[in-house]
Amino acid sequence: MVKITVRNLLENCKAKLLIGNLDEEINECFIDSHKVKEGGCFFGIKGSKVDGSIYYKEAFNNGANICVISKIYDLDLKGYDDKTVIIADDTTKVLQELAKYKRSLFKGTVIGITGSVGKTTVKEMISACLSKKLKVLKTKGNENGQFGLPLTILRLKDEDLMALEMGVSIPGEMTTLVSIAKPNIAVITNILSSHIGNFGSRNKIFEEKIGIADFYNDGTLILNNDNDLLHDFFINDHLIKKISVGILNKSDVMPLNINDGVETNFDCLDVEGVKIVGGEKYIINALLAIAVSKMLEIPCQDIKNALNSFSNTSHRLEITKLSSGITLIDDSYNSSYESLEVALNLLSKFEGRKVAIIGDILELGKESKKVHQNIASLVMQNNVDVLITVGKYSKIIGKLASKKGFKKKNIFHFKTKDKVIKRIHKIVRKGDFILLKASNGIRLFDVAEHIKNNINKKD
Fold first, then answer.
1. Closest CA to 441 of 397, 398, 394, 399
2. How far apart are CA 192 and CA 315, in angstroms?
């Protein structure tokens, strides 16, 4: 059991004890005062508009035993004499340094997972496989950045292994994340155009993400050899072992006997009869999980059972058959050109009227117009029957699709998801296969929930 106390925090971070017990154990940590659980530790993070430290009372009232906050001039601790308050100039730094300290006490394996798309799916697949033999701590939801990563590590108790997503959206973040997580095994799913508006080019994204392999000791890098930038990557550090996975390019881990449909079947190494949903790109995800699992000596049958029973987390290529006869393919959590291509390809494999609800892909910067123009060709190639677009840039898709021969009467555009919700019942019908795909900020998952809870009941 890895335990840390207030004393450990003060010895390893720049902070001072105002009131409280040096031997108080630091359990699960939170940066949202609304989400604090009984016995938790609250960190007041200073944002661009509000300093979260002002919510210390709310955190205590919700059950926190410890608050790490910045200096507050009207601090009032009357009634909180039994609590612990720590003052720091930089609470974000304290959060990260405390996670570094706890990581230093951990003697198990840390797997870091990064890439433009597929991080969560690969993390979940790896965790499912390894959990057959080991106790695994994994990233919750999208807690994969400069706050989420340390919060995950600080949840560590008696686990054997950590499977950590490491997401970056601006230059320099990976250096910070690697210094905290110190992964023994690094997994890179791909290098695509996500967040290209913040980096300027895919090469810059590559340079950022490859930093996950800046190991502090002997390490293993497992990567997607079919990705152009990763395929060309050469390791000249003898301390790093590289394992490649791929379908198109000769790799260490490859699939055999692929039978591709709505459900894709394949064999890999001595793992036979793997079944997944999502097509070729999801085979890559499974191969990465197999590579990690074989490295950690997980039995073949356990790997097969884990992958064959695997289901995506909410709003990530989640397929739901409704009683109305509608089938939802809900991939609304986030989007990129490449992941949209995967989702539309899956939609094309169903027999029936195909409805694509496509929202803007955000954070593309100057590439926004070009990327959305290219999506029109994807729509045409995958035999979509009804096209619904949502947002600012996605309107381009419908305009170009109509010029390529898509029926105008089957194209609908809405500025917001709320407007889609008001009209969707007039567009979709029983037996439709409906794909929802957009960047998280468009909130198409609200449309998915509306269809489940309203249209489903009406029909």
1. 394
2. 21
* Residue 30 dihedral angles phi and psi, to the nearest 5°: -140, 150
pTM: 0.87
Tens of pLDDT along 327-356? Answer: 999 999 889 998 999 999 999 999 999 999
CA distance 113 to 223: 10
Q: Could you count the other beta carbons within 10 Å of the beta carbon of residue 350?
A: 16
- CA torsion 90→96→97→101, rounded to 10°? 160
**DSSP, res 79:** T
How many whole angstroms separate alpha carbon 270 and alpha carbon 220?
21
Query: DSSP string of 436-458?
Result: EE--GGG-HHHHHHHIIIIIHHH
Instruction: Label residue 259 left, alpha or beta by phi (over 0 means left) and psi (-120 to 50 means alpha).
Output: beta
Q: Look up residue 64 and give its two tokens.
A: 């926190």
Measured from the Cβ of residue 63, the count of other Cβ atoms closer than 10 Å reads: 13
Residue 394: φ, ψ to 5°: -65, -15
DSSP state at residue 20:
S
Do 24 and 66 contact (CB within 8 A), yes or no? yes
